[in-house]
Automatic annotation (TrEMBL):
P-type ATPase N-terminal domain boundaries: 36-90
Annotated source species: Cyprinus carpio carpio
UniProt similarity note: Belongs to the cation transport ATPase (P-type) (TC 3.A.3) family. Type IV subfamily.
Name of protein: Phospholipid-transporting ATPase
Annotated membrane topology: Multi-pass membrane protein
Length: 1029
C-alpha cells in the first residue's frame, strides 16, 4: 500500500542495478540473503491525473495562467481592505472559471482513465501454483508465466518460452505498434521449447538476466545453461499472436516499463498560440490598469490638498483615520482604485473561451464529412483546448505505414520471359492484347517454372478455421476456401501468393517451412508436393526496391545432388557458427545466388489511402510543409513518397543516408539546396540524422527549411519526437502537427503542438494519446482548412472583442468613477456575453466548400495574423475612442445646466451614468453585428435580444422599489431617461458617431486592399439560411 501511494505521488525510487534478474515463475532462491528486486506493476497509464493529485495539480496548472493568478490577487485584496466593489464580483467569476475548466479537464482525463481501465482490466491467463489461473492484465508481475492464445495481444513484454508448434516458433503482427501488417516469426530456445504443458512450465528452473528497461532492448543472458537472447525471442506488448494456437512466455517488462510505454513522451499541458497571445495582451492591459490606478490615486491626493475637500463637514474623519500612516493610506487607496478598474481585464473572457472551446468541439464529431462509413468511425476530440491551433499549422509530421498507406500490397504487373503481363478482369494478359485474344492467357507449360518459383519460394503462412472431425489439410489446395487466412513476413509475398492463387489455382500450404513435407503446387497439369529445404533470408543489400512499383526479380539455379549436399553443409556450418555468423551467412548466400537463370519479375504497389495525394497537395497550397517520418527502409519510403505526391517527379531529391562520421555530404546538400529555381526534397535516415543533429544542427535545419518536402526513414519512435521538438523550438517557433496510427507514433503525437491519431485496424494507443482522432488521412484537409480556419477566426475576434468592450466599459468609470454595482456585474454576464458566444460558435467568413477548394485561403490566417500586435492595438484604440465618445458625447449633451425634460427638470448623475451605459451596450453589440458575416436565426436572436433584454431589465430594475436593496438610487431613472426625446436623439447620434468611421474603413479596405478571403466572399455567394457545422 505504501509503495502504491509513493508511485502515485511519483516518489518511487529508480532501479538500483543496471541489470535485472527475472526468476521464471517467481521461484526465488531460498537462502536468506536474497532480496527481491522491485518492478513496476502491469498497469498502463495514459491519464494525467489521479484521484489524489487532481485538485492540487489542476489548481497549480490553472493558476499558472496569468489571468487566473491576477484575479486571485484581486479577490484577496477585496477581502483584506475596504474596496468600492464586493469580493463577489471577482471571486464568483473566478470560482466559475476554475470549476468549469477543472470539470472539463477532469472529464477528458476520466475518458483516458476509462480507456486505461479497459486495457488494464482485460482477462489474461497466468501459471500459478501448478495451474492456469485467470486474472486481470494489471495483476501480471515480472516473472509470471503468461499464456496467450491466437489473435490475442501480448499483455506485457514476454520472452517466448514455448508454443503449440513442435519447433517452438510463433507468428505475430505488430500493426498496433508500427502499422506493419506483415507476419513476423519469433523463436523460443530449445531448452524451454519442449515445455508445452502447465506442469512442465511450473517445474522449470531458469532465470532471465537482462538490462533495465530502455527504449532499445539488448539481452545479456538467458538461463541455465547460458544462451544469448535477441529481439527474435521477445514478444512486445501490443503485438498480436497470429497463426499460432497458443504460446507461453515469461513477463520481463511490465506496465510503464514495457517498450511500448517507454516510447511514450511524458504528458505535458499544451497551450495554443491564441492563449499565449491572450497572456501578452493581458500584461499590456495590466500596465494600463496600473497606470489608471496610480493616476487616480495621485489625482485624489491632489484634490484633497485643499482642506475643504480633505475633510468636509459632512464626512468628518475619525481619530484613527487622522493618525494612520500616509504610506498605508496611499497603498490602500491605490488598491481600491485597482479593484475598481480591474474589469478592464475581463475574467468573463476566460469563461466564454472555455465554453466556446467545449461547445465548438462537438462540431468536429458532428461533421459527416469526417465520418468513415466502412469502419463506422467518426472524428473525436480528446481535448478541446487546441481547436484554434488547427488553423495555425505550419508543419505536418506524418507516419507512412497505416497513415498514408493501407499497408496492403496490390499486384500490378509482371514480366515472364521478357513479356510484360497485366491483370485484366481476373486474367493475366500480355501487354497490347485483350482478354479475348487466342494467345492472351499465360501458357501453363511454358511458364510453369516462373509460376512455381513465385508460388513456392516464400514464407507465407495460411491459417484454417478448425472444423470438427479429421480432414485432409490438402483439401484446401484449390485456394478458394473461405476459412483460409494468409500471413507473411513481407506484404509483398502475401500479395503475390494471393494473386497467383486467384489467377492460376496455384497454392502453397501453411507448413511451408524448412524441412517440412507440406508444400503443394497445383497447376493446370498436375498437383505435386514439395519439401522446402532452406530459406535464404533477405537483408538490406540483397533486398532492394525500385522507385515506383515494388519489384521482385525471380530467378532459379539447378543443383545436382552433390552440389546440394555441399550447399546444405555450408549453410549448416554458417548458421551454427558462434563467431562472425552474419558474415559467413552472407558469404554462403553469395555462393548460392550466382549463375542464376532469369525467369521474370513482379511488380506490386503499396495501396495508398483514398485521396492522400490530393490531401498533401492541398496542404502544400495552404502553405503547410509535410514531413514524412517512418521506420521503413530508404527505398520503400522514397517509393511511397513519390506515389503519394509528397515528392514530385521533377523535384531534386537530396539524400543524406548511411553517414557515420563524414560531414562533407551535409555541406554539399547545403550548397545544392541554394538553387531556388527548382524544388528540393530531402531524404535522411535515422543514423545520419543523429550525426547531423549532434555535430551540425543549425546547418541541417537550414537545409530542411529550404526543402519543399522532407522524408526521414529508419526512424526510432523517440527520434521522431526529437525531430518534431527540433522544429517547434527553432527561432521561428512554427506550429507543428503530428499524425500517426501506431504506438510508435505516440511520442511525436505528444510532442507536437497538435497530435492526431488515425483510427487504425488494430490498437488504439495513438488515438488514446492524441488530441484529435480521425479515421483516414484525407480528413486532415477539412479538419485544418475548414474547422481550423473557422475556429481561429472565431476565437481571434472573440478575444479582441472582449478587450475592446471592456475598454469601452471601464474607461467611462475612469473618467467619472463608479456609478452602479448591479450594472457592473451584469455587463459581461448578461448584456454583452451571448452575442459573442454565438458568433464564436457559428461564424463563417466563406463557405466550407470554398475553403476546401481554395487551400491558399489558409495562408490568410497563418502565423497568428488575426491576433497580431497591430490588430490588437487597433481594437484597443477603437475601444478607447468609443469610450471617450460615450462619455464626452453624453457630457456635452447634459452639461451647462441643459434641460432635457419636458417639465424643465434636469438630469442628475445617475441619469448621466445610465445614458452612458445605454449607449455603450447598444454600440458594442452593433459593433459585433458589423463583424458578423454569417447570420443565422440564433445570431439575430441573441444580438437584438441582448439589447431588448437590457431595456426590459432596466425598466424592471428601476421601476420597482426592491426591499432587499440598501439604496434605491436607480428608482425611476431609466423611465425618466427614455421619456426624453433629446436622450433618444443623443443615443442615436452617439452610436452613429462611433460606428460610422468603422464602416467607412471596412468599405475602403475591401475595395482597395482586399484579402484573398474577401475576394472569395465576393466571388461566391452563400445560400441563405445555411448553417455549416
Amino acid at each position: 500500500m505504501i509503495r502504491w501511494i509513493r508511485q502515485q505521488l511519483g516518489f518511487d525510487p529508480p532501479h538500483q542495478s543496471d541489470t535485472r534478474t527475472v526468476y521464471i515463475a517467481n521461484k526465488f532462491p531460498q537462502h536468506g540473503h536474497y532480496i527481491p528486486q522491485r518492478f513496476a506493476d502491469n498497469r498502463i497509464i495514459s491519464s494525467k491525473y489521479t484521484i489524489w493529485n487532481f485538485i492540487p495539480k489542476n489548481l497549480f496548472e490553472q493558476f499558472r495562467r496569468i489571468a487566473n493568478f491576477y484575479f486571485l490577487i484581486i479577490f484577496l485584496v477585496q477581502l483584506m481592505i475596504d474596496t468600492p466593489t464586493s469580493p463577489i464580483t471577482s471571486g464568483l467569476p473566478l470560482f466559475f472559471v476554475i470549476t468549469v475548466t477543472a470539470i472539463k479537464q477532469g472529464y477528458e482525463d476520466w475518458l483516458r482513465h476509462k480507456a486505461d481501465n479497459e486495457v488494464n482490466g482485460a482477462p489474461v491467463f497466468v501459471v500459478r501454483s501448478g495451474s492456469l489461473v485467470q486474472t486481470r492484465s494489471k495483476n501480471i508481475r515480472v516473472g509470471d508465466i503468461v499464456r496467450v492464445a491466437k489473435d490475442e495481444t501480448f499483455p506485457a513484454d514476454l520472452v517466448l518460452l514455448s508454443s503449440d508448434r513442435a519447433e517452438g516458433t510463433c507468428h505475430i503482427t505488430t500493426t498496433s505498434l508500427d502499422g506493419e501488417t506483415n507476419l513476423k516469426t519469433h523463436y523460443s530456445v530449445p531448452e524451454t521449447a519442449v515445455s508445452q504443458s502447465v506442469s512442465r512450465l511450473e517445474s522449470l528452473q531458469a532465470v532471465v538476466e537482462c538490462q533495465q528497461p530502455e527504449v532499445v532492448y539488448s539481452f545479456i543472458f538467458l538461463v541455465i545453461p547460458f544462451r544469448p537472447l535477441g529481439p527474435e525471442n521477445l514478444l512486445l506488448r501490443g503485438a498480436r499472436l497470429k497463426n499460432t494456437k497458443e504460446i507461453f512466455g515469461v513477463a520481463v517488462y511490465t506496465g510503464m516499463e514495457s517498450k511500448m510505454a517507454l516510447n511514450y513522451k511524458c504528458k505535458s499541458q499544451k497551450r495554443s498560440a491564441v492563449e499565449k497571445s491572450m497572456n501578452t495582451f493581458l500584461i499590456i492591459y495590466l500596465g494600463i490598469l496600473l497606470f489608471e490606478a496610480i493616476l487616480s490615486t495621485i489625482l485624489k491626493y491632489a484634490w484633497q490638498a485643499e482642506n475643504k475637500w480633505d475633510e468636509p463637514f459632512y464626512n468628518q474623519k475619525t481619530d484613527q483615520e487622522r493618525n494612520s500612516s500616509q504610506i498605508l493610506k496611499f497603498i490602500s487607496d491605490f488598491l481600491a482604485f485597482l479593484v475598481l478598474y480591474n474589469f478592464i481585464i475581463p475574467i468573463s473572457l476566460y469563461v466564454t473561451v472555455e465554453m466556446q472551446k467545449f461547445l465548438g468541439s462537438f462540431f468536429i464529431g458532428w461533421d459527416l464529412d469526417l465520418y468513415h462509413e466502412e469502419s463506422d468511425q467518426k472524428a473525436q476530440v480528446n481535448t478541446s483546448d487546441l481547436n484554434e491551433e488547427l488553423g495555425q499549422v505550419e508543419y505536418v509530421f506524418t507516419d507512412k505505414t497505416g497513415t498514408l498507406t493501407e499497408n496492403e500490397m496490390q499486384f500490378r504487373e509482371c514480366s515472364i520471359n521478357g513479356i510484360k503481363y497485366q491483370e485484366i478482369n481476373g486474367k493475366l494478359i500480355p501487354e497490347g492484347m485483350t482478354e479475348d485474344s487466342p494467345d492472351g492467357a499465360v501458357p501453363c507449360l511454358e511458364e510453369e517454372l516462373f509460376l512455381k518459383a513465385v508460388s513456392l519460394c516464400h514464407t507465407v503462412q495460411i491459417s484454417y478455421d478448425q472444423v470438427d472431425g479429421p480432414g485432409d489439410p490438402f483439401s484446401h489446395a484449390n485456394g478458394f476456401s473461405p476459412q483460409m487466412e494468409y500471413y507473411a513476413s513481407s506484404p509483398d509475398e502475401k500479395a503475390l501468393v494471393e494473386k497467383y492463387i486467384t489467377l492460376f489455382c496455384l497454392f502453397s500450404l501453411a507448413k511451408c517451412e524448412p524441412y517440412s513435407e507440406g508444400c503443394l503446387f497445383n497447376s493446370c497439369v498436375s498437383a505435386r508436393r514439395y519439401k522446402l529445404l532452406h530459406v535464404l533470408e533477405f537483408d538490406a543489400d540483397r533486398r532492394r526496391m525500385s522507385k515506383g512499383l515494388r519489384t521482385l526479380v525471380v530467378a532459379c539455379r539447378h543443383f545436382s545432388a552433390d552440389e546440394y549436399q555441399e550447399v546444405d553443409r555450408r549453410l549448416h556450418e554458417a548458421r551454427t557458427a558462434l563467431q562472425q555468423r552474419e558474415e559467413r551467412l552472407v558469404e554462403v548466400f553469395n555462393f548460392i545466388e550466382k549463375d542464376l537463370e532469369l525467369l521474370g519479375a513482379t511488380g506490386v504497389e503499396d495501396k495508398l489511402q483514398d485521396k492522400v495525394q490530393e490531401t498533401i497537395e492541398s496542404l502544400r497550397l495552404a502553405g503547410i510543409k509535410v514531413w514524412v517520418l517512418t521506420g521503413d527502409k530508404h527505398e520503400t519510403a522514397v517509393s511511397v513518397s513519390l506515389s503519394c505526391g509528397h515528392f514530385h517527379r521533377t523535384m531534386n531529391i537530396l539524400e543524406l543516408v548511411k553517414q557515420k562520421s563524414d560531414s562533407d555530404p551535409l555541406y554539399t546538400l547545403f550548397r545544392s539546396e541554394k538553387d531556388h529555381v527548382i524544388q528540393h526534397g530531402l531524404v535522411v535516415d535515422g543514423a545520419s540524422l543523429s550525426l547531423a543533429l549532434r555535430e551540425h544542427e543549425k546547418l541541417f535545419m537550414e537545409v530542411c527549411k529550404n526543402c519543399s518536402a522532407v522524408l526521414c526513414c529508419r526512424m526510432a519512435p523517440l527520434q521522431k519526437a526529437k525531430v518534431v521538438r527540433l522544429l517547434k523550438t527553432s527561432p521561428e517557433k512554427p506550429i507543428t502537427l503530428a499524425i500517426g496510427d501506431g504506438a510508435n507514433d505516440v511520442s511525436m503525437i505528444q510532442e507536437a503542438h497538435v497530435g492526431i491519431g488515425i483510427m487504425g485496424k488494430e490498437g488504439r494507443q495513438a488515438v488514446r494519446n492524441s488530441d484529435y482522432a480521425i479515421a483516414r488521412f484525407k480528413f486532415l484537409a477539412k479538419l485544418l482548412l475548414v474547422h481550423g480556419h473557422f475556429y481561429y477566426i472565431r476565437i481571434a475576434t472573440l478575444v479582441q472583442y472582449f478587450f475592446y468592450k471592456n475598454v469601452c466599459f471601464i474607461t467611462p468609470q475612469f473618467l467619472y468613477q463608479f456609478f452602479c454595482f448591479v450594472y457592473l456585474t451584469l455587463y459581461n454576464i448578461c448584456f454583452t456575453s451571448l452575442p459573442i458566444l454565438v458568433y464564436s460558435l457559428f461564424e463563417q467568413l466563406v463557405h466550407p466548400h470554398v475553403l476546401q477548394s481554395k487551400p491558399a485561403l489558409y495562408r490568410d490566417i497563418s502565423k497568428n495574423s488575426l491576433l497580431s500586435f497591430k490588430t490588437f492595438l487597433y481594437w484597443t484604440f477603437l475601444g478607447f475612442c468609443h469610450a471617450f465618445i460615450f462619455f464626452f458625447g453624453s457630457y456635452t449633451l447634459m452639461g451647462e445646466d441643459t434641460t432635457l425634460m419636458g417639465n424643465g427638470q434636469m438630469f442628475g448623475n445617475w441619469t448621466f451614468g445610465t445614458l452612458v451605459f445605454t449607449v455603450m451596450v447598444i454600440t458594442v453589440t452593433l459593433k459585433l453585428a458589423l463583424e458578423t458575416h454569417f447570420w443565422t436565426w440564433m445570431n439575430h436572436f441573441v444580438t437584438w435580444g441582448s439589447i431588448a433584454f437590457y431595456f426590459i431589465f432596466s425598466l424592471f430594475y428601476g421601476g420597482i422599489i426592491w426591499p432587499f436593496l440598501h439604496t434605491q438610487d436607480m428608482y425611476f431613472i431609466f423611465v425618466q431617461l427614455l421619456s426624453s426625446g433629446s436622450a433618444w436623439f443623443a443615443i442615436f447620434i452617439i452610436v452613429i458617431t462611433c460606428l460610422f468611421p468603422d464602416v467607412i474603413k471596412k468599405v475602403f479596405y475591401r475595395h482597395l486592399q482586399p484579402t484573398s478571403t474577401q475576394k472569395s466572399q465576393v466571388s461566391v455567394r452563400l445560400p441563405p439560411q445555411t448553417l455549416q457545422l
